[in-house]
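haha ok so turns out i had the wrong file open the whole time. this is the CORRECT one, sorry everyone. sequence first:
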Amino acid sequence: MQSLFKYYRIFFPALFFLHSIQGKEISSVSYQAQVLPALEKHCIQCHGPEKQKGDVRFDTLSIDFLKDRTAAETWHDASDQIKLGEMPPEEENPLSEGERKLITEWIDSNLEKALREIKGEQSEAVIRRLNRTEYQYTMEDLLGFKMDYVDGLARDPLSPDGFLNNGKVLGMSSLQIEHYLKTARKAFQLILNEEEEPTVKVSEVKWNKGNIRGPSSKLYVGKSDHRLGRVNYWHGNFQQPPKSGRFTIRIKARSEKRPGYPSPILEGSYGFFVSGLTLNIQGSLPEVEIDSNETKTYEISSYAKLFPMTLANVPDDKINGVLTFRNSLDDGNPLPKQLEKITETKDKKGKIKKKKTNYYPEDPNFSKIIIESVEFVANDYSSWPSKIHQQIILPEEDLNNERTAKLVLSRFLTKAWRKPIDSQTAEKWFQHFKKISRDENSSIYALRETLATSLASTNFIYLSELKPNESKPSKLSTHELAARLSYFIWSSMPDVELRALADEDKLHDPKVLAAQVQRMMNDRKVNRFAEEFSKQWLDLGGVDRVAVNPRYHKNFDNRLKPYMQAESLEFFKEIFKKDEPMTQIIDADFTMLNARLAKHYGVEGPKSQRFERTSLKGTNRAGGILGHASIHLSGSDGAESHPIRRAVWVRERLLHDPPKPPPPDVPGIEESVKDFEKLSLHEQIEFHRKKESCNDCHRTLDPWGIALEEYSAVGLKREETTVHKKPITSDTILPGNHPVDGVEELQKFILSHRKDQFAHAFCSKVLTYALGRSLTLEDEILVNELKNEFVKNRFRLSGLLKNIVLSETFRWH
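then structure:
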């Protein structure tokens, strides 16, 4: 019999078959008289005194599920493999239907009994820091001010489950604390205004018909012009750009587009150049859709300190502001080829001179931007102090009044730390503020420093849920529950309504909680959950880990890589937004495409870079995630497909049943096979499967990847391998002796034979993400309850989110 542990588990097995036992009373089944004889007949020869595949021995394995957790997990692993038809192997004596039912129901019954007895013993307090994404969104929502808060912040490590919000792996360093403090100081310097109201200054940006200079010049094709199509750009300059303050760029422009064609998109950059030097140093501006054929004024606002600025010792009269714009609409078509034209001119003597010039022809169907004028408005505030300043310090409040200063600090700390603060804490922070104010003779400076310090403290950076009584489970406080809920669905802090309900101690009311979940799912911030969960669950970062080999994919455009990831993200978001069955992740008749990715696939699709729902009916593309180039590329080496990587992805991400790593003591086959490196990957795999030490795992793992062989490393259909030009083979035998040929048959198999396993896997993944920790054996009862309701609710994620939030596990320590 094959190894029981060919699929490792993170803390607990992928349990998906626990159910109440009906019919025969399993408690009356005798292990010694009934179960052990069946094991001796079919299992002991591979898992007994003479041989212990996977280091598992049944004849001495404890049957005390309550006291021996390791043994309980091993028994359940066996139950799973028997139900999936993976044990015994095809070449061994098969179990009869009666024997199969006897063994699995005995295991399941005893395991469920043990789980119910240990319920509550292993609950754990969550203490974890905000990850990069949560920190970014929390700073935005707290301050109401958008900037890049994570630039320079180290990447977060993935947990064994594949998520970025697991407290066990989210460490902290002095460099991170330094970053939090520095970033908060920068934000408060822009937000809290101390000086007198500055004078508004409007400057005309003069069009420059010359070429762009600087490191970004290669990004611009054509010439400087007022008409921006597939080529050409507009750039201009003005004198003495501001070194601080808020500014607004006003662009008077119109589009020139035909009915049914997408609007052009204005992409800009702003920066400076110093007179006498040749370089333009610029930073990117937000994109603007030019949505009207009538002239309109479009505005882009930001802050000078968020853009490159020259050294302080350069005289102001030597500094020039520079703006550059181009049309970034991408319909997937290539740039036009340059043409040559000859112009004739007469000199003073009347002699005709001919001059050759190159130019790009204009595409009449491509939507264009016509820029009429541009102006730059420095110190552009709608009110003074700024609106954000007035949200922290109300207009009627005076920081020089001690009572008022305490109120301002307490109000901010309560919001930022997501919980009430006591008077002792408030006094401590007030004294900190008071000392700085006295030393620096500035209450605004003192407030900036005090608030910045509060945003580098553990009260802000960490989500802490401390148990008042470690000996038994206890409810989260209402503020802890509000934070857990908001970081689950919004990846950010609770909003005003959630905080108010927490203050009123109403959030544990199931009706109130359910209503809040629905409200939060109706908010656009729910896209954060859709993006973060799907990106981590599907491991879309794998696309970035693979470099496409240009030797074998000469026409591949690297700009497609983020579009490949976006297809899968937008696909998940579309299913979630429309509240459609999540089984469409496995198979669907549509995908989400933009113009360039549609052309890559060879299907009719959108006409811009915006992703749209695109039908796959009548195309050669498979629907569902298994037809996405993101999965094909990440499951490759950049040149050729990698069936094992793809198989591991299917088992781990879709079925929550990943293979264990190969044993460290198994020697590589490379040394024993002549010219091994010259073999194709598929031939190498065949050699691995011929080795007994490798075959146990590979014969049940490889088929899941072989079924995807019809797709190349860059996600295109093919008939031969990319590197060795040999016919592809996508027909294979899945565990349980199920033949499939290609992706479409694999999808049908999963939906007909493994739908319950997919449902269990998906519920496990969402619950893991929701709790910010790996699941334990104790969570299994809840996972099965969630799975049953998920199936009953036709696999809709909206119901699953509500059920998770309403569960005792989510609301309690």
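The mean pLDDT is 88.
again sry for the mixup
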